[in-house]
């Protein structure tokens, strides 16, 4: 018997309100759980996600006292152009943000418009106390059930949450993350990262950034009124996200609509770098393996990649069961077994994948590592933003061209071309085992090659000349790598030989059918 949706909504709302009333640690816990499909049901996740940008502020007088203490000033007028605003423009679980003007160090310079982020009072001591209580409760009452359900102790999940939360409490660390993002996107004219105009004014509780004058994505109507090219903006946002994950390994972990701006030149701007996570090269490699497993319908490879990423234990029986389950989930979500962005089901979405994966968590010993919980939240949030702007948005349709270009041009990933273009022995069998046109394991998949080039062309803007640099880099990557070139040549040769064999089988198959038809025509009908 399923829960009544109305009752579930009431309970989820009550949970959100209770978390808000209990203070910042519980708000962050609710936000954390909103990104854990292995722990919380999808209907509760949706409600808890509202806490991302709907938190009451704290006392203005207290905020000003913290600001003066950390800047070592007696009056705000010493640094800021009066009057300093009396209300914050945003409030979150960690702190509040004011929009203000600061005097430039050189008196002859114009004042600088800034965002002033101030941490909530006594936050560290409050959070450390609550984390101790969480961990005590996890060890005492939940470790056994969690071990059976998730394959790890509940205290491990609490520790992941605690580490993530404590990182956010040091605004100096956030300033360093912001500077790293600036360096990564320094030469990208479409991605805007705020600067730190007065680094000497930053402290563990105060962070001053340049003001970003864009359109908040919480105001969808305003984005359209600003005559922003929605398709171009979406493509830029997805490219920036894929670049963070697969190239830099440093990604924004909280890109909800309040933290992302649409710029009037169709670029994208990020703010709030308190929740930034890193992916190791090993994680990036395994993540790409998982994607290639989906592309090739190779669910054995996909399951192995998930194991390397920490989603499941090293148990052969569990891996086989999970592999079969993943194939069923993919077919149900995508509408078929093929990873073909142009032929996905109309209602396909990353949200549907996570909802199905969430259900899978209840049947198998799967858990989501904290760094990938953040990635899931990032992708879900990004998809939600894009679907608000364009209801027909399909994440893979936009992401796949950027992945294709990376496979063709990034030296870190070009060797994976062999995995994409050569049919895997573990790939799902064709629906018609007697199909004389079906390619065999080890052959070069020419259709996939043209599809990859087509998507790379789409990501380059659609023109053949804009694709030329990508193709030249891809050709250079192949011909300069003897192992990759050898494998592709071998696969192409096998494909050529088998193509001739398939052609002969078609001829013989056609002759056999004609003879059968002639025999039937000459055989007299029974009396």
UniProtKB/TrEMBL annotation:
Protein name: ABC1 atypical kinase-like domain-containing protein
Pfam families in the record: ABC1
Family: Belongs to the protein kinase superfamily. ADCK protein kinase family.
Superkingdom of this protein's organism: Eukaryota
InterPro entries associated with the record: ABC1_dom (IPR004147), Kinase-like_dom_sf (IPR011009), UbiB_kinase (IPR050154)
Protein's organism: Pycnococcus provasolii
Domain called ABC1 atypical kinase-like: residue spans: 50-304
